[in-house]
Each structure stands twice: as structure tokens, then as C-alpha cells.
Amino acid sequence: MRISTLLLMLTAFAIPIFQPCCAEAAAKKTNIILIMADDVGYECFGCYGSKQYSTPNIDRMAKDGMLFTHCYSQPLCTPSRVKIMTGISNVRNYSGFSVLNSDQKTIGHYFKEAGYKTLVAGKWQLLGAEHYKEQFRLKGSWPDQTGFDNHCLWQVDKLGSRFWQPLLNVDGDNKQFSKKTAYGPDVVNDYVLDFMEKEKSNPFLIYYPMILVHNPFDPTPDSESLKSKNKQRNFEDMVAYMDKLIGKVVAKTQKLGIAENTLIMFCGDNGTNVAINSTLNGVEIKGGKGKTTDAGTRVPMVALQPGTIAEGSVYEELVDFSDFLPTCLDTSGIEIPTNIDGQSFAPQLRGESGSPREWMHCFYCPRPERTPAKQFVRDKRWKLYRDGTFFDVANDVKEKNDLTGSATAEARAARQKLQKALDSFPAEGQQLLKFVPNGR
Fold it and tell me: Residue-wise over 112-125: b if at least 16 C-beta within 10 A, else e?
């Protein structure tokens, strides 16, 4: 009887001990890894048809997950970084190159408030480093002010090398890696992998704006010659090395047993450098970085989450850079703010119909102190600029034929729709360099 009584007591206590664990496992939040390469268009990837570049890991992500055919960024690095981190069009919150206003709420803030461990690693360029003019210097945001627990970044307050023997800011300290074999992208990628290992039992957000493949076009550790000066050849090697590093991140999720609970999204921040020429499906494409054409704004994008995203799926609707933030929040069960421009495509990742966006908006004014702004709204076929120029970009990708006077009913209807969308945004950007003191 004593033994039976003891067993009954243990069974009674076992219920509250084990049920919460099961509930916790069932309610485990989705990890997010958002990877953004630097200066590479869609034409540089095998999953889009390239035979020129070697991207087996990203191609595998597309095969095992979802490939996006209409993802659009800003035409340049800082504008894209501000947009992807805040979910807001540049017309509302962009004030200067290399600057993210410190009053902005970022993806890091949202996830940290939701109890996630947060990391940003790669290229920052949002504070106004030492090499910029005084009016920009230190006028932006420090990484730890934007919701990130940890960081390993190039170009925070100082410049230095980004590739060989890099200068990186690691959790607030500038570290000069003096060994000749120290390669910046490797250092950053190792930091990402270590973070994943450390936080594997916690929900985490990793925002990974990569250092690669921005110029200078230096050889990589895998290049045949470390003395090569061939920009085109070195760039192709850099694309391959970028792909290799991403493959390590994907493999780490598998090794840690968290692949099915981790959404990985990869994109480029803008088009390829203008010094690079690529061939895609028999067509030569010159890099369009800095231009508002497809060559400057149409970027690669793939998404992977085994068990959630169907293998080999293709998403042919529009994705704007403001959409990444609400999609990440939606995926993780975090409330989406109403004061942003982005909209979630999380339902589509799950195979649901969702609400695909009908058009995307771009306000491009990287140097407000010296250049006029360009602004447009487009859908998959038509594109309308604020100055009234109007293009059938699906059939005129280089925007050579202005259809302002077109009399076709289809063109008129498309223009009317896009004009209404364009009118919903301010005609001008915010006041130049309208900064909020960052307290340092």
C-alpha cells in the first residue's frame, strides 16, 4: 500500500511537471534569419537561369523552398537598409546617406520586445562613420540602440578594411584583425554561427546584411590567385564565396535541429555594380546599381523553412523591401504595427492565398543635400514616375519608350491605378538631416 500510495503521489506531481514543457515546445516561436547580400542583382544566380555564376547553396534553397520573381529593393545600400529595417518608405524617414535616424523603430526593437535574442552582423553604414562629412558623422544610430543584443559589423563609427585584415566593431569594441589570413566575411559568418549555437534553445532574430559582394573586387580565400586584379573574375569568386557562407548558415540550422522552426530569407540590397557584366539566358545585363531601372532594383530572393514552405514553389507577385519587417513579425506571431508601409506575405509562405500587393512604391534620394529625388510606383508590368513618365517595363526593361501619350485603354487604366497609389505618398521627402540626438 505504501508503494501504491507513493506511485500515486509521483503521478500527481508529474502532471504539472511535464505538461508545461509540452505546451512550451508546442508554442515555440519561429526563429528568423534575414540575409541581405551587398550589390548583387538577380542575374547572378543559377536559380534564375545563370550559367556564369556558381551559387549551389542558394539554388538549393530555392529548390527546397520558394523562389521570388518580383522582389524590389531601393537602388542603393543605405536607402535599402533603412527601408528593410523599418518597413517604411524612404519618403517618410530617410534623411541622409549612411544615416538611420535614431528615432526609428527597427526590426531589432520589435523582436527584442517580444523576448527574442537579437543579432545584427555584416555591414552597418547607418551611424555616419568617421570618413563622412561632419554634417553626417555620428548623426545616425549605433547598433545597440536599434534593438540588437549582439553585433559584429563593418563600418560603424570607423571605416577600415572590410575584407582582408578587417576592422570590425564587435559588441561595441573596434577590433583590428591583423593576421594576413583574416578575412572579414569569414569572421562575421563565424560570429553568426556561434550566436546560433549559443541561442539554439531560445527564439532568435539574426539580421545578416553581408559584407560581400561589394567592391573592391578582391580575391577571396578560394580564389586561384590572391593577387588577381581581374575585377570580373574576382567578382564571380566573391559571389561563389557569399554562396558558400550562406550554405554554412543553412547547414547550421540542420545540425542544431532547428531547421523546421527557422525561416531563412535571402535577398540582395540593390542591383549589381555598374562595372560588372553578366549574361542571363543569352542576354547581357550590365550592373545597374544606383539606377531606378530593373537593373538597379530587381533583386534575388529565396525563402526556406522545411515543413512550412513547399518545396520548389515560386512566388510571382510583388515583394517590396518594406514587406520584410511585417512578414517576419507575422511569422513570429508578433503584432504588426499600423504605421508602416509594408505588408506581410507570411500567408503566401505557408501556401495560403494571402493578400498579394498590387503595386510597390520607391522614393530614391540617397544624397538629399545635392541630388533631386526620384519617385515611382509600379506593378509587375507598368511603372509611373512622379514626373509623369510612364513605362511598360515588362516589355521595355531599360525604360527607353515613354508611354505618357499612349491611348490604349489598358495603358490608361494602369496609369490611373498607379497615379492613385502615387498620390497616397508625400510628394517630397522629410526635411534634410532632421536628426534626433542619439545620446552619445
Answer: bebebbbbbbbbbb
Residues 134 and 156 in one domain: yes
Instruction: Please give the C-alpha separations between residue 356 and each of 218, 315, 340, 366, in angstroms, as whole numbers.
Output: 40, 10, 16, 28
Helix-, strand-, coil-residue percentages of the chain, each rounded to 5: 30, 20, 50
pLDDT of residue 11: 42
CATH number, domain of 274, equals: 3.40.720.10
* Contact between 369 and 401 (Cβ < 8 Å): no
Does some domain include residue 13?
no
Other beta carbons within 10 angstroms of residue 318's beta carbon come to: 21
Rounded to whole angstroms, the Cα distance separating 69 from 230 reads: 31
Residues 127 and 266 in one domain: yes
Output the CA–CA distances (angstroms, integers) from residue 87 to 263, 264, 329, in the order listed: 18, 18, 11
pTM recorded for the entire structure: 0.92
Cell numbers at 64, concatenated: 527546397
Domain that holds residue 414: 364-423
pLDDT digit string (tens) for 268-294? 999 999 999 999 999 999 999 999 999
Q: Which three cell numbers stand for residue 242?
A: 557569399
Instruction: Give the count of domains, the chain.
Output: 2
Beta strands in 61-154 (DSSP E): 66-72, 117-123, 150-154
Q: What is the DSSP letter of 151?
A: E
Asked whether residue 1 is assigned to any structural domain, the reply reads: no
Q: What is the pLDDT of residues 143-152, one digit of tens each?
A: 999 999 999 9
Residues 409 and 309 reside in one and the same domain: no
Burial of 188 by CB count in 10 Å (0-12 exposed, 13-18 middle, 19+ buried)?
A: buried
**Are residue 140 and residue 92 in the same domain, yes or no?**
yes
Q: Whose CA is closest to 44, among 272, 289, 212?
A: 272
Residues 343 and 368 reside in one and the same domain: no
Question: Do 155 and 129 touch, CB atoms closer than 8 A?
Answer: yes
Q: Is position 403 within any domain?
A: yes
Burial class, 314, CB count within 10 angstroms (exposed 0-12 / middle 13-18 / buried 19+): exposed
Does the residue 375 lie in any domain? Answer: yes
